[in-house]
Design goal:
125 residues; mainly alpha; elongated
């Protein structure tokens, strides 16, 4: 009779592999970027972040969500990134993110101004 024996180290390798695969599920739940975590809820004393939040709210009021939706989404994501950097104590990164946000807000502002000059009402009724 010819039996094939599996060596003990090989059996341990297979057992470890099976255990590892069974412990890592294929589906996980993570919140979308900007919708969870402590950094998004972090209330900072930095006036610059708060002022950008006010500017974004004003642009939303003027209809930027309708006329520059993609730019607004990018600006919100950039603001979240700046908040995360500030919450993590990365002041330089936060300032860099706010500088990029400033340029994004300028683009949105120019789009809304052009719309208003051409006779379109940007504010939703």
């Amino acid at each position: 009779m010819n039996r094939t024996r599996v060596s003990w180290p090989m059996a341990l390798r297979w057992a470890a592999l099976i255990l590892l695969v069974s412990m890592t599920p294929g589906c996980t739940w993570w919140p979308d970027s900007g919708s969870g975590g402590a950094a998004e809820r972090f209330t900072t004393d930095q006036r610059s972040i708060r002022s950008y939040e006010i500017i974004l709210t004003d642009l939303e009021r003027r209809g930027a969500d309708r006329w520059a939706a993609v730019d607004m989404k990018r600006a919100r994501a950039q603001l979240v990134k700046a908040k995360q950097a500030a919450a993590g104590g990365l002041a330089y990164d936060a300032e860099e993110d706010l500088a990029l946000l400033w340029f994004q807000l300028q683009v949105i502002e120019k789009k809304l101004n052009r719309l208003e000059q051409s006779g379109h009402t940007a504010v939703r009724s």
